[in-house]
């Protein structure tokens, strides 16, 4: 990685031309609906990401670095300076790297505590890429925020990310006094893959009596299941940035197995036995999606034939620590108060809607915030390299308002 800056200087101009060509050729296959927030800006962000992917492919083929390594490097962005309102320090909780944000202002008593798990498909993301979001949450909600750098796939497969988040959370809950945090006001929070991890950690800790009980869970457009990639939101938003239907399956497989073999079979639904599909249909079904979310072109699909060999490679998709939507009612009814944010133009929208229903059916209080013009990843883009998305700011402020209510 230390060689990358010099390599970029040498290769930038010719590779940028190749990347631009790839982007221009690829854009027509993507769908940016007119109702989405700031469509021109979204197209610009998409162009940058596609250019990064194209450059990464070229670097990988030349043997300089992998496409994923290059993508991670580019996503790091620039380092932020000191924040006059926050103490920020990098630590380790049970050998897991974390970044702790503490407001400098005096407080009348212990503050809220927030464990934040970043998104990025379990493959991308870091403490630095979510620095702005975590600073904002800490400043605006007057909370101590702990951002967790869990191990990433494909180098570290499931359950590595989950185990790191759980371990860091347990450590924090055992040392709240050191950070002047109220044991009765600790929340787990995450976006996308981080929302998945927050839900899994919350379920694991729900029955624990040896640790302070979590006050709430905040799930921002979470991915919560890998059984059905043909729910209405997957059909409607299959080509909408920043998460395409195929990429959702790709990331899930990369996290599970370290590769994306059998992606097409998983997309078609051939990876789940008929008896299991029937068992989980009460929780993962278009029938549980409100009708108002089915108006943008949804069609019933014919069942595909089950392929046992594929199931053998992905059967852990049925584990709640990987797919929290599949947890038993006995676990779900113990969960803390919940906040779920969904976006209309997001393949993961229905995962959030289905989990909202499960929580409510089990008597768990749920605050739901739906961005009707939102797309996947918009929260982290509320202020991205000078390009702002007002809808992302509204979503982030809805999280802050929920935190202030606790």
Write a brief structural summary.
With 406 residues, the chain is of the alpha/beta class. It is built from 14 helices and ten strands. It has two domains: 51 residues, no CATH class; 322 residues, Rossmann fold.
Number of domains: 2
- Count helical runs: 14
Q: Order of strands across the biggest sheet?
A: 1-2-4-3-5-6-7-8
Q: Mean of residue pLDDT?
A: 93
Relative helix content: 40-55%
Task: Report the CATH architecture of the largest domain.
Answer: 3-Layer(aba) Sandwich
* Poorly predicted segments: 6-15, 23-28
For the record, give the distance between the C-alpha atoms at the N and C termini, rounded to a whole number. Answer: 42 Å
Shape: globular
What's the count of strands? 10
Can you summarize the main beta sheet?
Answer: 8 strands, mixed
CATH superfamily of the largest domain: Alpha/Beta hydrolase fold, catalytic domain
Strand content: 15-25%
Q: CATH fold name of the largest domain, please? A: Rossmann fold
The value of Rg in angstroms is 21 Å
Coarse structural class? alpha/beta
Oligomer: single chain
CATH class of the largest domain: Alpha Beta
GO molecular function: carboxylic ester hydrolase activity
Domain Alpha/beta hydrolase fold-3: 114-261, 305-379
Keywords: Hydrolase, Signal
Active site: 192, 346, 376
